[in-house]
Amino acid sequence: MPPGGRGRLLSLSGERSFRRRLMELGLLPGTEFRLVRLVRVGGMVEIEVRGCHISLRKSEAEQIEVEAIAP
Question: What are phi and psi of 2, to 5 degrees?
Fold first, then answer.
């Protein structure tokens, strides 16, 4: 998904504490988000959810199943 693209969270995998942290930040199945940017150095992903910006490590983002939403 390119920066500026929109998506919907389908499911979370990984450790329970990781899933709980994301849910506390508002990342629940069905939540829509916008990909703000991909930072190559350090492998970070920045998304916007409900007006808040959240940065995730690439390894964390890979544990989130999403679907793209057509513009």
Answer: -80, 155
Question: What's the pLDDT tens digit per position in 9-61?
Answer: 999 999 999 999 999 999 999 999 999 999 888 789 999 999 999 999 999 99
Q: Is the dihedral of CA 32, 45, 10, 67 positive or negative?
A: positive
Domain membership flag for residue 1 = no
Amino acid at 61: A
Say how many residues make up the chain. 71
The number of folded domains in the chain is 1
Residue 15: which CATH number?
2.30.30.90
> 56 vs 1, 19, 24, CA distance in Å?
15, 13, 14
Instruction: Answer whether residue 42 is part of any domain.
Output: yes
Tokens of 49: 């959810």
